[in-house]
Write a structure and sequence with these properties.
Layout (H helix, E strand, L loop, with lengths): L1 H11 L3 E7 L6 E7 L3 E8 L5 H5 L2 H14 L19 E2 L3 E7 L4 E2 L7 H14 L22 H8 L8 H7 L3 H19 L6 E3 L8 E4 L2 E4 L6 E3 L2 H4 L8 H11 L7 H25 L4 H20 L3
Antiparallel strand pairs: 1-2, 2-3, 3-5, 4-5, 6-8, 7-10, 8-9
């Protein structure tokens, strides 16, 4: 942990007395940093992970938007904002990783628990507030604007065709029966994307990764974390995560108090549902192909892959 202590000392002017691992997420490792005065949360994107460029490329573009949301809207206190380095940078980077430091949130991740009614209300209020804002805000949003292109399409097709023999035998056996349906879904996704690109879609700020592992309960307040996927997009980019939840009608009743005349755009919803499923499968295959995983992590990744393949196979689209 000395390396991490040195980073926070030299780049954030914080003398850490202890650094302890926390439960990380899909994209990064996590650590609790304790100083004499405060606790902090250190997020570490390892450069050895194939997914790191995707999650970190736009840090300098999306963090100013998060700062603005935290200062100028009713989202203050409901989302974490990275602390600046001593050089006023949004991140620190070295040969091993990319680092972001946050104030530590005392609370619990919702995770596998179901949301209760107050949490549903607070989530709806957070998303309704977020969806009030678009490209008119006084921060540049061009870099995060949805263009309905599929940046991972070429890599995905290569993994299903030229690179499929590079997959470990056990993974190859899992993926092979789904190759045709995956190819069909990707073709369908690109067709829908082309149609949406030619339409006049209303764009709003969207989190694009709404699930219970990105929700924390801190005191009486629900907090939405992990904003790497922030996009200027149709609101279906967020609502797609909620349409099959048992609380969806309850959520929408609160959401529509702010967005009175909102009607779901079924084509945009379909685009994001298919895209998310294919992107998750692509990332899981990427991990199995390129990342050095511990045996337990590999078993977990294969389990996730099987689940995603079953879902996309039975999805009626």
């Amino acid at each position: 942990m000395d390396h991490l202590k040195n980073i926070v000392r030299h780049h954030y002017d914080i003398d850490a007395v202890d650094v302890t691992p926390q439960q990380g997420g899909w994209s990064a490792l996590a650590y609790k940093v304790i100083s004499d005065q405060h606790c902090y949360f250190l997020k570490v994107y390892e450069k050895s992970r194939a997914s790191t460029p995707k999650w970190t490329a736009l840090i300098d573009k999306y963090v100013p938007i998060i700062q603005w949301l935290s200062r100028q809207t009713r989202l203050q206190g409901k989302l974490p904002v990275p602390l600046l380095t001593r050089n006023a940078a949004y991140k620190h980077e070295d040969d091993m990783g990319i680092y972001q430091l946050f104030a530590y949130i005392e609370g619990k991740t919702i995770g596998n628990q179901a949301l209760h009614s107050l949490q549903v209300r607070q989530l709806a209020e957070i998303i309704a507030e977020l969806h009030l804002y678009g490209e008119e805000i006084p921060v540049n949003t061009a870099a995060i604007k949805q263009d309905f292109r599929i940046p991972f399409a070429e890599q995905f097709r290569e993994m299903l065709n030229e690179d499929i023999h590079r997959l470990p035998d056990d993974v190859n056996e899992i993926v092979k029966p789904f190759v045709n349906v995956l190819a069909d879904r990707m073709n369908q996704l690109e067709v829908i994307g082309d149609e949406l690109r030619g339409s006049e879609m209303k764009m709003k700020l969207c989190h694009t990764d709404l699930h219970n592992w990105n929700l924390m309960q801190s005191g009486q307040q629900l907090i939405l974390i992990d904003w790497e996927g922030l996009k200027l997009a149709p609101v279906e980019a967020d609502l797609m995560f909620l349409v099959e939840e048992p609380f969806f009608e309850e959520f929408m009743a609160i959401y529509r108090k702010t967005h009175t005349n909102y009607v779901i755009n079924r084509q945009a919803l379909e685009f994001y549902q298919i895209r998310r499923a294919l992107e998750d499968i692509c990332e899981l295959l990427e991990q199995l192909l390129f990342d050095e995983q511990e045996a337990g992590d590999r078993v977990e990744t294969i389990g996730h892959l099987k689940g995603e393949l079953r879902k996309i196979d039975r999805r009626i689209i």
